[in-house]
Amino acid sequence: MRNETALGLQEAHGPWARAARFVLHTVLFVIFAGPLLALMVGAFTPTVDPTQFTLLPDRLSLDNLERAIDRGVLDYLLNSFIVVGAGLALQVLVSVFAGYALARKRFRGSATVLVVVLATMMLPEEVLAVPLSVLLADLPVVHISLVGSLAGMIVPVAAWGFSILVMTEFMKEIPKELEESAKLDGAGEFRVFWQVVLPLCRPALGVIGIFGFTMIWDQYMLPLLVATDPAQYTLPLALRSMRSDDQVGIGVLLVGAFLAMLPSVLAFLALQRSFIRGLTSGAVKG
């Protein structure tokens, strides 16, 4: 009996079918994983020829890493961690409270708020660059400038429409009977939110955690607008600066690219269970 594939086709068996699957899987592995493996190998190869693609170097060395450290890569990496740590914490905090208000509370204009949140996701960074730079140079009400500080890279990412929408839609699926039961037991509003609603949102927290981390970590336009000194550069911005320097070898750039890629991979591995549950929860509830 033949099994059907995801496309509704019948899965073939036999030696030729197994050989075809092996070839297909090998090609896909080379296409997607090959460049990443070449990046890691090239970062720790003493002499790197950018015209050659190799996964089997003659020997490995930390020379490129030492030269990258001399170029201040660790300082740029620290700036990136500060920005992503503070920015992600604020983003998650804003998302869970905004999602709770939009999903569990009824107030006039809630639909308009959702439309505005959605509209913020439709504008590219290039369009927002000029008004954002003006706001950061003179914040309304307080009239202070965040240009030339890491705070200028943190505050704009504290609220992200995608995270707010994810939390809003996920919290709408939580039965209201749970809140009513907790209130009958004497729980207050904050206790209901903290002990009843929020623990059920762990899958959604994994989703916004991974996407939010990646969004903030990969920011290039925002640091470019805010940083006024190389000491304030984050790693993506520093890589662009080093790329234009003829004295920086390709090995140093590969080390920087490897360090820029590694935290995103580790963040996904740490949150992958919550991430997968968050992606599949809608299908299961449906």
UniProtKB/TrEMBL annotation:
Pfam families the UniProt entry points to: BPD_transp_1
Main location: membrane
The keyword Transmembrane helix is annotated on this UniProt entry: yes
Keyword S-adenosyl-L-methionine in annotation: no
Protein's membrane topology: Multi-pass membrane protein
Compartment list: Cell membrane
Transmembrane portions of the chain: 22-44, 81-102, 114-136, 142-171, 192-217, 248-271
Top-rank taxon: Bacteria
Ranges of residues in domain ABC transmembrane type-1: 77-271
Keywords, in A-Z order: Cell membrane, Membrane, Transmembrane, Transmembrane helix, Transport
Secretion signal, residue range per the UniProt entry: none
Family: Belongs to the binding-protein-dependent transport system permease family.
Name of the protein described by the UniProt record: Carbohydrate ABC transporter permease
Species: Streptomyces hirsutus
